[in-house]
Write a structure and sequence with these properties.
Helix 5 packs across helix 10. The protein is mainly α and 452 residues long. The longest helix is centred in the middle third of the chain and has 74 residues.
């Protein structure tokens, strides 16, 4: 299939088949990309004698990791839907200008944040709740990862531009290649070479470097519809500011994950010590098993929604949204049921420490109690973005975490004797409230957006 056929079919093909074609590779890519985030923790958690402390230390790096990802997606998630809308309007030149400007933003972000985080890591990690025992592990992992974070920026920020053209298999291969390499290198560096957490970080960065090379070769090659060209990398405010405006909601969602992680770890460190913080590291990894596949489904639907919105085909936009909503809600409900009845299925993956596994299983049931609602939350939130609705998407991104969850983390312990229980309880309360508001807002505004 040629590049033009690949985009034209977004406006004419069967929606269920299109969603399957675009979403399945994207979900696979998200699951494999998930391995970048959790495979290190799985291996680290099983290092003899120091596994629990090392796992907790690496978990404390999550806020910095989330900020790196947030800045990468500020460009990628903001630019890719606008590029798809431009393609729907048959304006390839503008779409390529968006691609070039977002590439330059990613390089700029990478330079500034690498310098700042590398030198600020020890102080930040101590602020996040690192103890004397866990801080050395956290710093060792953080500084190696940060030094190679430019590859993370390119993979996360440029891959959406491949997906938005309909080349989901190519996008999937980006993460497949890197993740498989990471899985191979992790045990070699950690156990064979005896590098511990340093080896885990090094394996991840080398794997991301391979993924970055793969992406750049594709976007500068002959098979892509939108080509990365030198003429388009000069930053133009008229081009990149709308991308930042649309991407800000994703940035807020991901950067508030960083603030959220700090809120959780600092509170849990205060009320429950290292075992509570270690449990949160496991729970964060498990929650990714829910959210990242759903993000893959939403990313698969995004090109169909954005293209047909740009082409003013309202009925196809509606059919795509409701199909996407049904799939995400079904997945979220199934995952919620497993978490409630069989939490040990997840916790035992990350540790062979019996005390930590039992504590994490108890905490997981509380934390995941409202996750059944996340199918509707994610679908509506991401669909606002796919339709170019930056302002309301930004508000809803703030609602769940900044307005509800973070205040509840600090407020609920004032009313419960079991302080750790109260901290974990903040999550399901905010999940249910935010999903209710987001879904209501989207269904109320959907027809109005399409009419405009």
């Amino acid at each position: 299939m040629t590049s033009n056929q690949n985009t034209n079919i977004l406006g004419t093909g069967s929606i269920p088949k299109l969603l399957a074609k675009l979403a399945i590779p994207t979900v696979i890519a998200q699951i494999i990309n998930l391995l970048y985030n959790i495979v290190d923790r799985i291996y680290i958690g099983h290092i003899p004698n120091i596994g629990s402390a090392a796992l907790t230390g690496v978990g404390l790096f999550v806020p910095i990791l989330m900020l790196i990802n947030a800045f990468a997606m500020l460009a990628g998630a903001g630019g890719a839907p606008l590029a798809a809308i431009a393609m729907g309007k048959k304006d390839k030149e503008k779409a390529e200008q968006i691609l070039g400007n977002c590439f330059s933003l990613l390089i700029l972000f990478a330079i500034v944040l690498t310098i700042g985080f590398y030198y600020g890591a020890p102080s930040l990690l101590r602020l996040f709740g690192a103890s004397d025992i866990t801080l050395p592990f956290a710093v060792d992992y953080a500084r190696i990862y940060i030094a190679g974070s430019i590859f993370v920026f390119l993979v996360m920020g440029m891959n959406p531009f491949i997906t938005t053209q309909g080349f989901t298999k190519v996008s999937m291969l980006t993460t497949v290649i890197g993740a498989l390499l990471n899985i191979i290198l992790d045990p070699i560096f950690i156990f064979v070479f005896g590098l511990g957490v340093k080896g885990a970080a090094l394996a991840t960065i080398l794997s991301q470097a391979v993924g970055a090379v793969w992406i750049l070769r594709f976007l500068t090659g002959k098979n892509t519809l939108l080509r990365l060209k030198m003429i388009n990398i000069k930053l133009n405010p008229k081009i990149f500011l709308p991308c930042l405006g649309l991407g800000i909601s994703t940035f807020v969602m991901m950067s508030t994950e960083s603030l959220l992680s700090v809120s959780f770890t600092s509170s849990l460190s205060r009320f429950g010590g290292d075992i509570a913080v270690g449990s949160m590291t496991i729970i964060t990894s498990v929650s990714m098993l829910l959210t990242m596949p759903m993000q893959g489904i939403c990313q698969g639907a995004q090109p169909i929604l954005s293209y047909n919105f740009g082409a003013k085909n309202k009925e196809r936009v509606k059919k795509t949204f409701f199909l996407e909503l049904g799939v995400c809600m079904t997945y979220a409900l199934a995952f919620w049921a497993i978490s409630m009845f069989f939490p040990q299925v997840f916790t035992r993956i990350f540790t062979n420490d019996t005390a930590l596994a039992e504590y994490a299983s108890w905490a997981l049931r509380i934390y995941m109690a409202g996750m059944f609602a996340m199918g509707a939350q994610n679908t509506c939130q991401q669909s606002f973005m796919a339709l170019g609705q930056a302002k309301i998407s930004l508000f809803l991104a703030c609602l769940r975490k900044l307005i509800l969850l973070i205040p509840l983390i600090f407020a609920l312990p004032l009313f419960f004797e079991n302080k750790v229980f109260a901290v974990f309880l903040a999550e399901p309360i905010s999940d249910i409230l935010a999903a209710t508001v987001t879904t209501t807002a989207f269904l109320t505004q959907f027809n109005k957006i399409l009419e405009k």
